[in-house]
Amino acid sequence: MSWQSKIYYKYRLDEPVVKIVSDNTGLLISDSFLSFLISEHKSYAIINSASEIIKELSKVEIVILGYKLTVPKFIKDKNEVFEFSYSDIPVNGTPKLLSNISVSELINLLDYIDAEDLHAGITETNLSGLLDKADKKADQQALMDFCNSIVKQFEKELSWNSISIIAKNWAQLQYQSYLSNDFSVLDIVNKIDSYCNTYFETSKWQEIFYAPVSNPRTVDKIAGKIKHDKHKKNALLCFDCMGLPEWLLLKEYLTALNLYFEESVICSLTPSITSIARSAIYAGTYNVYDKKNPGQYTEEKDFKAAFGQENTTYLKESDYNTKDVLIGYNTVSILFNFFDDLCHSTHIQSSNVSKFGYYNNVVEYLKNSNVREIISDLLEEDYAIYICSDHGSTIAKGNGKKIDKYLHDKFAKRGTVIAKESSELIDYKKIRIPFIDDRLVVIPDSREMFAGKDQYEINHGGISIDEMLVPFIKISKE
Fold first, then answer.
1. CB-based contacts of 397: which residues, under 8 Å, 6+ apart?
2. Please, which residues have CB within 8 angstroms of residue 267's CB and are 6 or more apart in sequence?
3. What is the pLDDT of residues 227-258, one digit of tens each?
4. Over residues 290-300, mean pLDDT
5. Of 239, 265, 284, which is closest to residue 374 (Cα–Cα)?
6. Which residues have a Cβ under 8 Å from the Cβ of 18 and sit 6 or more positions away?
7. 292 vs 213, 277, 309, 392, 415, CA distance in Å?
8. What does the alpha-carbon distance between residue 30 and residue 35 come to, in Å, rounded to a whole number?
9. Which of 149, 226, 240, 453 could be stapled to 340 by a disulfide with Cβ–Cβ 3.0 to 4.6 Å?
10. What is the percent of the chain where pLDDT is above 70?
11. Neighbours of 445 (CB within 10 A)
12. What's the rounded Cα separation, in Å, for the pair 132 and 139?
């Protein structure tokens, strides 16, 4: 019997009458306990005052829960009212010791005891050790939950909805694996690629280009979305090479600002390289394959053409010294290159093929960066802030093969653009570019790259969801 069940039946919450419980621990108003009530088809209400209790008393078979709730005597006289304290938690030993830990730690501990050690007694000497074991168990369970969420999508018809759900769960799985220093579950990547890559290898993914600018699905619609929202002042923060797992690192770093994140997932272009995908962000169109000099100069020109020459500025992170650089501009873009710089400079050992070292470098960089200060300044100056990325990245293994230079239109190790008439000269997988008829993208097998045999790098350009699906965030004060 689970700890939730023990509490449920101890207070006879299954009975068809109103029960009022003042929870002095926070345990009963946690998602873990409330989810159990839902599974038992038990109605509940979370309240904060006596007046709210009175409103709920007219309902039948309800559990009324409140944190450290004071219940008036006239209500106590006519209803069943309970006080739930640490001494009521169903564990052996000295449960009052649990008052010194957080609710999340408490839940992990109770789950661990239920699953691994039903007779464990809580003492001053063993509590710390039990908490460590419980945290490890919770981490493992979280990883398995994300894996299971991914596997469920494999049973569904391939669509934007299914691969975006997989991408979000895969990002969480990578992030939680990094926090737990456990990459044992990451071998699911092969199954992910087997399911998701087909979406981009066929014409099926053209469907997302028709999404409205109000709900964009591709990076070329970002500028249109900003215009659609019609804020007086806008700031576009573009983090080159920030995939969904990297966004979770950045999000954690921004926690101190107490921000509200309106999060969505959108798609890069093929190949998933800066000269294509970032150009599309600033030009506001997917038709960027003919740009002769893609890069910051062209991006700035396109951005000002879209939002106005006089009121628009394009900055790099290093340009931002004080918020004085914002004076006189209604539309601002700031380019951050540290994700891209750090991923390409991180050495991957064949004995430890993971992004964990790269993530460590990102965390250290952010500690000494001014990203939080920039966002705080923008909020103070009433800018609507949009965070975007052009593409993500993946660990790639060199296949020892190459494509002759004279066949390149644009070269990247994970995906190379060629002229359509050259396609017969290249014996590698080729995929169509949506709405572009005179070019194709050549991609290597799996997560390989056109580089030295068995050489490992963090790179991009391919069609894996790590490279193709990126975050698009609108942030505001909480």
1. 447, 448, 449, 454, 455, 456
2. 205, 208, 217, 218, 219, 468, 469, 470
3. 999 999 999 999 999 999 999 999 999 999 99
4. 93
5. 239
6. 56, 57, 59, 60, 61, 62, 63, 64, 79, 80
7. 27, 14, 22, 24, 19
8. 8
9. 240
10. 100
11. 10
12. 11
Closest CA to 389 of 466, 442, 315: 466
Q: What is the mean pLDDT of residues 404-419?
A: 91
- The length of the chain in residues reads 478
Would you call the peptide bond into 271 cis, given omega within 30 degrees of 0 as the criterion? yes
| Average pLDDT, rounded, for the chain | 95
Predicted local confidence at residue 424, as pLDDT? 85
Structure tokens at 261: 């994140």
With 90 as the cut, is the pLDDT of residue 188 above it?
yes
* Confidence band of 473 (pLDDT split at 50, 70, 90): very high
* Bridge pairing between strands 80-84 and 19-23: parallel
Strands (E), 234-311: 234-239, 259-267
Res. 478 pLDDT band, cuts 50 70 90: low
CA–CA distance, 333 with 385 (Å, rounded to integer): 10
Q: Which residues of 188-219 are buried (b: 16+ CB within 10 A; e: fewer)?
A: ebeebbebbbebbeeeebeebbeeebeebbbb
Q: Are 366 and 250 a contacting pair, CB within 8 Å?
A: yes
Average pLDDT over residues 363-370: 96
Both structure tokens of 383: 């800018």
Q: What is the 3-state secondary structure of 217-252?
A: CEHHHHHHHHHHHCCCCEEEEEECCCCHHHHHHHHH
For 119-150, write each residue's pLDDT tens digit: 889 999 999 999 999 999 998 999 999 999 99
Tell me, what amino acid is at 148?
A: N
Dihedral angle computed from the Cα positions of residues 301, 460, 163 and 165, in that order, rounded to the nearest 10 degrees? -80
Q: Strand 394-398 vs strand 456-459: parallel, antiparallel, or unpaired?
A: antiparallel
List alpha helices for 83-237, DSSP H: 103-116, 127-154, 160-180, 189-201, 222-229
407 half-sphere exposure, CB direction, 13 A CA radius: 18
Cβ-defined contacts of 338-345 (< 8 Å, 24+): 338/362, 338/365, 338/369, 339/239, 339/240, 339/241, 339/242, 339/246, 339/389, 339/393, 340/240, 340/241, 340/274, 343/241, 343/393, 343/458, 343/459, 344/457, 344/458, 344/459
Residue 293, pLDDT score: 87
Q: What is the torsion angle, in degrees rounded to the nearest 10, for the CA atoms of residue 59, residue 61, residue 66 and residue 69?
A: 80
Q: Cα torsion at 127, 130, 134, 136 (round to 10°)?
A: 120
Q: H/E element holding 307?
A: helix 296-307
* Contact yes or no for 3/28 (Cβ under 8 A): no
Q: List pLDDT tens digits, range 301-318.
A: 999 999 999 999 999 999
Tell me, what's the pLDDT at 408? 84
**Could you give the angle at which helices 296-307 and 274-283 cross, rounded to 10 degrees?**
20
